[in-house]
Amino acid sequence: MKQVNLLLMSAAMTLASCGGTKNAGEQDASTLIRRSDIKIEGRRMTPEALWAMGRIGSVAVSPDEKQIAYTVSYYSVPQNKSNSEVFVMDADGSANTQITQSTWKEAQPVWFKDGKKLAFLSSESGSNQVWEMNPNGTERKQLTQYDGDIEGFSFSPDGKKLLFIAQVKTVKSTADKHPDLPKATGIIVNDLMYKHWDEWVTTAPHPFVADFDGNGISNVTDILEGEPYESPMKPWGGIEQLAWSPASDKVAYTCRKKTGLAYAISTNSDIYIYDLATKRTINITEENKGYDTNPQYSPDGKYIAWQSMERDGYEADLNRLFIMNLETGEKRFVSKAFESNVDAFLWNKDSQSIFFIGVWHGETHIYRLSLTDGDKLTRLTDGVYDYASLALCGDKLI
User: Fold this and answer.
1) What is the pLDDT of residues 214-252, one digit of tens each?
2) Which residue of 109, 233, 278, 349 is surrounded by the most CB atoms within 10 Å?
3) Residue 41 burial by CB count (10 A; 0-12/13-18/19+): exposed, middle or buried?
4) For the chain, what is the radius of gyration of the CA atoms?
């Protein structure tokens, strides 16, 4: 079996115990949520032991592929909340350094400005905004002043635009319906979908595109302006459900364009492509009636891939990998040889193959799918691991 070089990132208590570089935003030490130091009795996996572990979050490889930025979330049982911090290490795993240390949650680090800066989300200003800093955590600077929380973001490949996610109000509150009762807090329910787990559905996440000049954003456009739909989809969708074309002229997004009862009982989401110049939107998966989600353009811009379930309303359907030739419109079910779900996936740099994570007979492994060799499937890993994400770094997979 052909092997692949892997650098494993493990969500373990010892990973993030290295010393940190303090920055201007550092808070009173008594309020910081850090790596917990607990005593495990009798080798038992207690709730306290589980919550003491740092959780690895998003991972970003620098443009020169020499460094990796990632986040670790820590949890406090006494404070009943969590906090996430940013770390940077060399691509071989050395020089692991915590570069933020604050009570504000720093999340989703992204290398930009030719790798000289890291962009990230922070709540330091009172709402979640995009900030930048040096790779050592210094010179923090707020880049966006959006009126509301930014929940995810992605710079266009040419660096001139910012795609971000923010909530839009789609349901009138009781106070809106009854202006004479401005302090009313009761919820009037007369249709589905009125709640997702622990939150009332009064807003929908929308994708926004803005011009970016290196210091801030302007000309903000809501791709779904006037539409009451979600993109990304609640309750778990994030920036992975949106994708820039390599030419920076289009945005692919996931959306289930339904409301009310139809929304609540359907899993029929689709992949849409929005053209920034014409502001036209096309649905490229209209014929499929199940989940279509998580689009990714190939690096050469000739193809787009996505995950797809076939049947409407069947949440446990087979999660297949599809690709579409953007010139001819031809679509292919490329993961037929893998009779299980395709989970996280990633285009190879040459656009000729795709890496993905999948579970087979209770074991999670990484596979390579060759698109030029009859969709040949090769398993790349062995051992008992629980792979969760993929990133390319030179000739290695993170």
Assistant:
1) 999 999 999 999 999 999 999 889 999 999 999 999 999
2) 109
3) exposed
4) 22
